[in-house]
């Protein structure tokens, strides 16, 4: 990545630039990825987030896709998301939630070095200031903590940023890697394709991970 920020305001424009709170005024209590993709993500969390962790799920909703045992095996699970109504339905949040639109205010409402892991599911494509958000993720992570950004190929096209809609899956992962590069303070990132392998039965959502560890 070049030393200077290579993107323009147009790259982060959206066909529907209206306030996102209006878009989420009515709860969307549905999965945004199909069941095999959810299962792959849940298993990834099970294998890669240690017990007794403090976890924050950003851009969260009524479900965080964590394993069922996490509320009992983790120290705390907190979340922030745009819809307080959706978050109220999330029964895995042992640490509570804060309703907040990160496009309106990219500051996370948590103290420094509060979490061991931060997750974000299929939502970074909607952020108009992703580097500011990832700087906040860095701030709230403890040294050696990790951020796990998962991504598929579905989105609300009117709300995704313009350049995202022009990219393929590999380019999306490279873009997320770039966001983390410009946020600073993370070890070299790792990317994983955790797409479920199934017969051709109608399930088609890929699932990718970008994981970054905060430098110690």
UniProtKB/TrEMBL annotation:
<keyword id="KW-0489">Methyltransferase</keyword>
<dbReference type="InterPro" id="IPR029063">
    <property type="entry name" value="SAM-dependent_MTases_sf"/>
</dbReference>
<feature type="domain" description="Methyltransferase type 11">
    <location>
        <begin position="107"/>
        <end position="149"/>
    </location>
</feature>
<dbReference type="GO" id="GO:0032259">
    <property type="term" value="P:methylation"/>
</dbReference>
<dbReference type="GO" id="GO:0008757">
    <property type="term" value="F:S-adenosylmethionine-dependent methyltransferase activity"/>
</dbReference>
<protein>
    <submittedName>
        <fullName>S-adenosyl-L-methionine-dependent methyltransferase</fullName>
    </submittedName>
</protein>
<dbReference type="Pfam" id="PF08241">
    <property type="entry name" value="Methyltransf_11"/>
</dbReference>
<dbReference type="InterPro" id="IPR013216">
    <property type="entry name" value="Methyltransf_11"/>
</dbReference>
<keyword id="KW-0808">Transferase</keyword>
């Amino acid at each position: 990545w070049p030393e200077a920020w290579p993107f323009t305001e147009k790259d982060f424009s959206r066909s529907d630039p209206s306030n996102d709170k209006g878009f989420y005024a009515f709860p969307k209590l549905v999965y945004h990825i199909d069941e095999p993709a959810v299962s792959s993500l849940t298993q990834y969390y099970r294998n890669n987030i240690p017990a007794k962790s403090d976890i924050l799920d950003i851009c969260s909703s009524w479900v965080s896709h964590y394993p069922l045992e996490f509320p009992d095996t983790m120290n705390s699970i907190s979340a922030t998301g745009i819809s307080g109504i959706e978050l109220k339905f999330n029964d895995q949040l042992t640490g509570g939630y804060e309703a907040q639109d990160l496009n309106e205010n990219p500051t996370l409402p948590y103290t420094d070095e509060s979490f061991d892991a931060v997750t974000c599911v299929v939502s970074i494509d909607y952020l108009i200031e992703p580097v500011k958000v990832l700087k906040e993720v860095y701030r709230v992570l403890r040294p050696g903590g990790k951020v796990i950004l998962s991504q598929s190929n579905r989105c609300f096209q009117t709300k995704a940023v313009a350049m995202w809609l022009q990219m393929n899956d590999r380019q999306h992962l490279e873009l997320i890697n770039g966001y983390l590069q410009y946020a600073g303070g993370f070890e070299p990132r790792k990317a994983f394709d955790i797409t479920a392998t199934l017969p051709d039965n109608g399930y088609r959502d890929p699932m990718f991970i970008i994981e970054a560890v905060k430098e110690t």
